Amino acid sequence: MIIVVLQARASSSRLPGKVLKPILGKPMLLHQIERIQRAKVPARVVLATSRNPEDDAVAHIGQNAGIVVYRGDLDDVLDRFYRASEPFAPSHVVRLTGDCPLTDPGIIDAVTRFAVDGNYDYASNSIRPTFPDGLDVEVATFEALQIAWREATTRSDREHVMPFLHRQSDRFTLGNYENERDLSALRWTVDEPADFTFVEAIYQALYPAKSAFDSGDVLAYLEANPSLAALNSGFVRNEGFKGE
After folding, report:
1. How far is 189 from 105, CA to CA, in rounded Å?
2. How many CB atoms lie within 10 A of CB 208?
3. Cα distance between residue 201 and residue 61, in whole Å
């Protein structure tokens, strides 16, 4: 079995409560869950949030969407991620973060197939990024994830889940899935108020006519409306690694 673990929490230093912010009357996190559910390769989606009371609303979104919710430690995200995965004994675990409401199910499937077919311990489309920031997909074997969970000791490794694996190419087999075009300069994640303004504009433009719009639709819209991409273009990609 292959599962997706989506990590999300309400707390955020730069944009508090971002995953709960409404877009067209629906929480941003719910939009992302619905997009992930359209992926065909993973068999299940699990929402991993914290047990802190401020994340009750996050958990309720997952429960109302009909997916499994695991609640664990706020700061030891690796432990939370591992324990959310463990009951399913998966062969592979796909890691996504809850600040990416433009997640593309087709890219989730492509990176997951790449990881499985290549027999990689860890694969992603972000070791050497060529996709827009916000379309990141990480896939690890459960065995590799378990090793990281047992052995990782630094605060950074416990918080960001996967660095323990992709930092050790001499120990783990790594794969990087690349896009045909280098679009890594584009920013489609939500970490700052300007990011939310950007994503909200995309949804307002595309969602009413095509709720299952994909990254190709977003690119086409941006090419027709180039000023929109400038809204949030001044931020550093993965500043402080990807969060929730």
Report:
1. 15
2. 9
3. 23
Q: Pick from 98, 104, 90, 103: which is nearest to 17 by CA?
A: 98
**Angle value at C-alpha 93, between 130 and 84, nearest 5 degrees:** 130
CA distance 200 to 213: 14
The residue written with tokens 């197939």 in the block is 113
- Cβ–Cβ under 8 Å, residues 58 and 36: no
CA gap 6, 69 in Å, rounded:
10
Q: What is the pTM of this model?
A: 0.95
94: which 2 tokens?
């796909």
pLDDT along the chain (244 residues), means of 10: 98 88 98 99 98 98 98 98 98 98 99 99 98 98 99 96 96 98 96 96 98 98 92 67 56
Burial 195-206 (b: 16+ CB within 10 A, else e): bbebbbebbebb
CA distance 94 to 83: 14
> Which domains are delineated in the chain?
2-232 (3.90.550.10)
Angle, helices 28-36/193-206, rounded to nearest 10 degrees: 60
Mutual angle of helices 142-151 and 77-85, in 10-degree steps: 140
The pair of structure tokens assigned to 29 is 């996190």
What are the φ and ψ backbone dihedral angles of 12, each rounded to 5 degrees?
-160, 130
Q: How far apart are CA 2 and CA 25, in angstroms?
A: 31
The span from the CA of 79 to the CA of 82, in Å, is 5
- Which residues, including other chains, have CB under 8 Å from residue 22's CB and lie 6 or more apart? 28
Q: How far is CA 78 from CA 150, 153, 180, 202, 221, in A?
A: 10, 10, 32, 32, 36
